[in-house]
Design a protein that fits this description.
The complex is a heterodimer of chains A (about 190) and B (about 270). Chain A has about 190 residues and is mainly α. Chain A contains nine helices and no strands. Helices cover about 70% and strands about 0% of the residues of chain B. Classes of the chains: A mainly alpha (about 190), B mainly alpha (about 270).
Chain lengths: ~190, ~270
């Protein structure tokens, strides 16, 4: 953990050597993920750079603190940024409404919000009971109610539906009571 | 909080399985009920955030103050300098990485040359049929003899003699037993007998013994292929040994299948 703090220091103060070490330790894993997921080496470099800038902005502007390891945080951030890129392309192709092309800094500021919302949703999910986590994991993987009924030996599909709704309500409550929720509302 | 009925409507709405009419009604409801609208939005975000492939975008016209603050920072001089430094660090990493890769390549190339030279010397004397016989004969794993639950003292004695490498005496014990009892020897005994014949150089008799094992119609009969292969190896006959191994390789369920694969690899 201490070394992670040192590397974070290097990042926010612009120490080239420390940042190169961050590349050495973490970039290969990111590059592998991206190139295995329809990306090129250049995409990986671009995403990694953006993730670093995003992290710096969060620290400087929002007093953000990493709770996991630097490697875990960066890897997740990069995966998300890449997923975001792939969905951007998809939207451009399929939607009629024009996706406004915004400048890079504005786009990155949205990316920060979206990452924060992703974290909110995922951290609150972990706070649920094991049973709810299991049911909802299957639900979001689009497993049918029928299959869930068989797996958990529930009496009927209606019973499964009710369990899903109950768990979703609990999750909604957790999300709404989280202090981060207000800033991330889009309505 | 919300009825099951409402939950079902929300699900249908987000899954796009509502009829056009129902959809219009529902959206009217949403306009008049901010609590319901919030519930729908959260459910929508759940679908986007918990999906491995989707992504929940912020609407571009969002006037979120936090977003503005981040954007301003990224436009600042400090942020631009940091961005440039990161690019320099990346270049440094790439330069270091490529020189490490070149060095690593040469180390591996040099190492493989050394290994090949050493291996050349090492392998000259190994892997003759006789040496393979020595490697693969597995007399320690011969099953101990149990004659339907009771161990005959005679056969145990024969086993003892075999383990003490007194092969001629072991053979005598087993053959005498066979004559006296007139019955066929058990598979286990045949293994000891055959092994004793190999070790004392009586290959013809070993073969006959293992053929008896093969024809014994017991669970162990097919291990005879293995022992016959060993017998051929001891005599230096690679080709005949390989033929025996081929029998084993026909069926992965046979005992010694993996050993046969291994040995076959070394005989090629």
């Amino acid at each position: 953990m201490n070394h992670d703090n040192y590397l974070l220091e290097c990042l926010v103060t612009g120490k080239e050597e420390g940042i190169a070490e961050v590349y050495r330790k973490i970039f290969p894993k990111v590059a592998k993920f991206i190139t295995l997921n329809k990306g090129q080496q250049a995409d990986a470099e671009d995403i990694f750079h953006r993730a670093l800038m995003q992290l710096i902005a969060r620290i400087k502007v929002k007093k953000f603190e990493i709770t996991a390891t630097l490697e875990a945080y960066l890897f997740t951030a990069c995966k998300n940024l890449w997923r975001r890129e792939l969905n951007k392309l998809k939207n451009r192709v399929t939607k009629d409404s024009v996706v406004e092309l915004v400048n890079e800094e504005r786009d990155m500021s949205y990316a920060v919000l979206e990452q924060e919302r992703w974290e909110l949703y995922h951290e609150t999910f972990q706070q649920m009971s094991e049973n709810c986590k299991e049911i909802l994991s299957l639900f979001f993987k689009k497993v049918s109610y029928k299959a869930m009924m068989e797996k958990f030996s529930y009496a009927s599909e209606t019973v499964v539906r009710q369990r899903v709704f109950k768990c979703k309500e609990k999750l909604t409550l957790l999300i709404k009571s989280d202090p981060r929720y207000r800033n991330l509302k889009t309505l | 909080m919300f009825s099951n009925d409402t939950h079902e409507k929300i699900e249908a709405y987000l899954n796009d399985t509502m009829s056009i009419a129902d959809r219009a009604d529902f959206e009217k409801e949403l306009n008049n009920n901010p609590e319901l609208a919030e519930e729908v939005e959260i459910n929508r975000q759940m679908l986007l955030n918990y999906d491995e492939y989707a992504w929940g975008f912020f609407p571009k016209n969002s006037r979120n103050p936090d977003a503005r603050a981040v954007e301003n920072y990224l436009n600042s001089e400090e942020a631009r300098v940091l961005s440039d430094t990161i690019s320099l660090a990346k270049d440094r990493y790439k330069a270091q990485n490529s020189s490490i890769r070149r060095k690593t390549f040469f180390y591996y190339a040099a190492a493989s040359v050394v290994i090949l030279l050493l291996a050349g010397n090492f392998f000259i004397n190994v892997d003759t049929p006789e040496s393979l016989y020595n490697d693969y004969r597995n007399w320690e794993t011969l099953p101990s003899q149990v004659d339907r639950g009771k161990t005959t003292t005679t056969l145990s004695r024969g086993e003892q003699l075999f383990k003490q490498k007194k092969y001629a005496e072991a053979i005598a014990v087993f053959e005498t037993y066979r004559e006296e009892h007139g019955a066929a020897l058990s598979p286990q005994t045949l293994m000891y007998l055959g092994a004793s014949y190999i070790e004392s150089g009586q290959y013809g008799k070993a073969m006959t013994t293992f053929d008896q094992l093969l024809n014994s119609n017991t669970l162990d009969s097919e291990s005879a292929y293995w022992y016959k292969a060993l017998t051929y190896l001891k005599q230096g006959d690679k080709e005949k040994a390989k033929l025996q191994l081929e029998f084993i390789l026909l069926n992965p369920e046979l005992p010694y299948f993996e050993k046969a694969q291994e040995l076959m690899g070394k005989l090629k």
